[in-house]
Amino acid sequence: MDNEKQTRKNLIYFPLGTVGRDAVYCLINSYLLTFVLFTHSLDGAQLAAITGIMMAARVFDALNDPIMGNIIERTHTKFGKFKPWLLAGGLSTSVVIYLLFNVKLQGWGFVWFFALLYFAFSITYTMSDISYWGMIPALGSDANARNQFTSRATLFAGIGSTLAAILIPMFTAGSGAIGGSTAVAYGWIALAIAILGPLFILFPLLGVREHRESSSPAKREKFSLLQVFRTIIRNDQLVWVSVIFLIQQVGNGLVIGGIGSTYIYFTFGYNGGLYSLFTTVGMAATAFLMIFYPAISRRIHRKKLMGVMAVVSVAGYGMMLCSLAVPGTGMGRFWLLVLGYMLSNFGQYCYYLIMMISIMNTVEYNEYKFGTRDEGIITSLRPFITKMSSALIVAITSVSYLLFGVTGYTNRISDLEQQCAQGLLSEEEKLVRISEVIFGAEGAQAGVSAGQSIGLMMAMTVLPCALMLISYFLYKKKYQLDEEAYDKICRALNRD
């Protein structure tokens, strides 16, 4: 009874801990490149350097994840192995993001400062992320309980990231920008999120208790980098699901990685509220999965569910493409785009939940085959994959921007934003001139062309759809830990 009572308590306090953390991640992952492009005037070399820094830092971050997982495995305190790193990572991340969004530097001075702070974020956020998600296998090995912890945590992660995704563009672009300037607005939002992150971390720190007997110190080897990668490589199911997850995540992140907001601004106008509406409605359907996924997973096997969601997502991407056929920039075209995104995101989010469960189920597979759970190392693969995919998303996004001439318009917009922040332009005049940049005006340079808009649309529909389908067919063929196989392994371990 005590274990059941503690499990119920854990199911309340653990998910709450990620609300602020995922608001932080949304700010960095979805809006940092947009912040840089729309608030700093950078030449081609400086923009290339920023892109290279973001990619290098995310690859470094990804490679650091298994090492951090191994360090957590060997942490011994009276508070457990996860909580000290969760607290340290949360507090230090808040300091970093505040500085990153409030620096007043421009040009190469900004580039070097950006490099320092971005690599610092890679280290501090990893402490928090690995320790948080690494708790799940230590909170229960029962399949249903693990589904509940995962779905509830992703529910509250979705709440944090969705609120951030809604509010950030609403209050940073267009007439609703805090202080009348995008640069000022991002500074205030970064401060708010920097405060909220550690506050929400208090819930798991003070309310959650892990089952520490789940990982036996006697079985641990002396720390070595070779041991980290040996643990990963020898687990064939972990390797396959990691590759599949990476492919799916790259496609899934292209819309919110910057291309979606740029397409909205270039097609319907520089209006942050409109992009907020796009993300709000587009992500609304995922709330259904966040709540009901455990019940669905008990009735429909994962591979069959993925097949259904593949059809739903393909239909959604098709609707988004069909919006190109609607003439003008009216709300009919906008709502067709939004509804298509809602369907495609619904299917992609279900894939995400399935991948999360599939990775964590390799903990018992690892114990069954090799006698050690190594849960800290194995669960570190989820953020590892997320960060590797984000590096690829930055590369694809930047190439798309250069290929379709996006930076020529964003540099002009950032110049106007800086003039407004310095009091050289009124907010009203700034918005008029930005509209002229996007749509063109008599005596001014031409606005964004139809070909450029179509190119951005292809990058956020055709490519994600293709990657999703590749991940589905690979999962169906290569991942063997279906529900029956996993239950068989758990029964064998319980007999031992």
Counting DSSP E segments of at least 2 residues, the number of strands comes to: 0
- Which residues form runs of ≥5 with pLDDT under 50? 213-223
| Average pLDDT figure | 83
Strand content: under 5%
Q: For the record, give the distance between the C-alpha atoms at the N and C termini, rounded to a whole number.
A: 24 Å
Using only C-alpha atoms, the radius of gyration works out to 23 Å
Helix content: over 70%
* Class based on secondary structure composition and strand pairing: mainly alpha
Order of helices and strands, N to C? HHHHHHHHHHHHHHHHHHHHHHH
- Tally the helices: what do you get? 23
Shape: globular
Tell me about the biggest sheet?
none
Fill in the keyword field for this structure:
mainly alpha, 496 residues, single chain, 23 helices
Short description:
By secondary structure, the chain is an all-alpha fold. Helices cover 80% and strands 0% of the residues. It has helices at 2-16, 19-39, 44-73, 83-102, 107-134, 136-139, 143-170, 182-207, 225-233, 236-252, 255-268, 272-284, 286-299, 302-322, 331-360, 362-370, 375-379, 381-403, 406-421, 427-439, 450-459, 462-478, 483-495.
What features would you describe in this structure?
The two termini are 24 Å apart. Helix 3 (44-73) packs antiparallel against helix 18, helix 7 (143-170) runs antiparallel to helix 12 (272-284) and helix 14 (302-322) runs antiparallel to helix 22. With 496 residues, this protein is mostly helical. It contains 23 helices and no strands. Mean pLDDT is 83; it is low at 213-223.
